[in-house]
Design brief:
Strand order of the largest sheet: 1-2-4-3-5-6-11-12
Radius of gyration: 19 Å
Number of helices: 12
Strand content: 15-25%
Structural class: alpha/beta
Helix content: 25-40%
CATH topology: Rossmann fold
CATH architecture: 3-Layer(aba) Sandwich
Low-confidence stretches: none
CATH superfamily: Alpha/Beta hydrolase fold, catalytic domain
Number of domains: 1
Oligomer: single chain
Order of helices and strands: EEEHEHEHEHHHEEEEHHEHHEHH
Shape: globular
Mean pLDDT: 97
Length: about 350
């Protein structure tokens, strides 16, 4: 691996680069509370099985990139526009159309990239992606809002103890809210999945810049349960359905690269029973005052993504859903062989 710093859009972006110049081009976008190095265990396997040219930036406020503010009113477009600027930074051969893969929040960044630059990518892999209708606050496969004030989404919908420990760069394993325990129990379903890479992967989480303009962002008081709503700044607000909803735009693009969607059935973060969805936590009794399924049902995240991809296919695109039984939120860590097979299959049918 080599590291480079690319000045683009007025900020310094740290970029991880692996593989030969003329290898199969692949652009990897990491998720929330991680960095480009979160791909590294999988990249080692990838390079051992073929010739790939791999570029994985650290998004703003993560890893070695500058902690530029995140304007949540643009959805995930601050991140997407930063990544798009790298396409012209001579990290790939001129005219290259890389495969594009995004994990978790990075899947939402990828959706923006495809909407805004559909002709720049040969294929798309969405790994455990945030719903095209955003995170939290919607009630059905069509992304219908649960409450007009977007209650239960944004910067206030996070465990403050986790935020505190993240800011302190806590490396302990003494509490369920410590970043290490969250990584071991929520990022994967098998706590031993990280193996010898555990400390390195924890460092990617601890690289997250904490504050109102980065992670988690600010919050507003609203009238609907649970009385917290999205503000205009920071990472979690950028995924609120108030600011991020790309379903219709994704379906409408004229040039549709093939999509592969990889997910695990034991995902604790992006699922129909997400332990990060306040509506589901309320249903479990973990957040008091939940008003019931009729007023505030858990978000059907998986059903929403499938519904949008079915519309994408009906409008002239194509998609493949790869379901890994018992796998958690990070298939590239927990089930790398199956993840590699999905990526290779996508590469075989990429657009020329």
């Amino acid at each position: 691996m080599t590291m480079t710093t690319v000045p683009a859009r007025g900020i310094r972006q740290a970029v991880h680069v692996w593989g030969p110049w003329h290898g199969t081009p692949l652009l990897l976008v990491h998720g929330n509370c991680s960095s480009g190095r979160y791909w590294e265990p999988f990249v080692r396997r990838l390079l051992a099985n073929g010739s790939w040219r791999i570029v994985a930036p650290d998004l703003r406020g993560y890893g070695g990139s500058e902690a530029a503010p995140v304007d949540a009113t643009r959805g995930l477009r601050d991140f997407a526009d930063d990544v798009a600027a790298l396409l012209d930074a001579e990290l790939f051969p001129a005219g290259t159309r890389p495969l594009l893969a995004g994990h978790s929040m990075g899947g939402g960044v990828v959706m923006h990239l495809v909407v805004d630059h559909p002709d720049r990518f040969a294929g798309v892999l969405l790994e455990s992606p945030v719903s095209p209708y955003g995170f939290g606050g919607t009630r059905d496969p069509n992304g219908t809002l649960t409450a007009d004030d977007y209650a239960g989404t944004g910067g206030g919908a996070v465990n403050p103890e986790f935020v505190r420990r993240l800011a302190e760069k806590d490396r302990s394993s003494d509490d369920a809210a410590s970043p290490r325990v969250v990584m071991r129990t929520k990022y994967v379903s098998d706590p031993e999945a990280f193996g010898a890479d555990e400390d390195a992967m924890l460092e990617t989480i601890l690289s997250t810049v904490v504050g109102e303009t980065n992670y988690p962002g600010d919050a507003t008081a609203v009238s609907s349960w649970p009385t917290t709503g999205p503000g205009p700044r920071g990472v979690l607000n950028s995924m609120s359905p108030k600011w991020f909803s790309v379903a219709d735009d994704l379906v409408a693009i004229a040039s549709k690269p093939p999509v592969t969607w990889v997910r695990g059935t034991a995902d604790a973060i992006v699922s129909d029973t997400s332990l990060f969805d306040l509506a589901y936590l309320g249903k479990l009794g973990a957040v008091p005052g939940w008003p019931g399924d009729q007023a505030c049902p858990p978000q059907p995240m998986v059903g929403q993504t499938r519904s949008v991809l079915e519309r994408y296919a009906a409008a002239g695109g194509s998609y493949t859903e790869v379901v890994l039984d018992g796998c958690g939120h990070s298939p590239h860590i927990e089930r790398p062989a199956e993840f590699l097979a999905a990526l290779e299959a996508l590469a075989a049918r990429r657009l020329n």
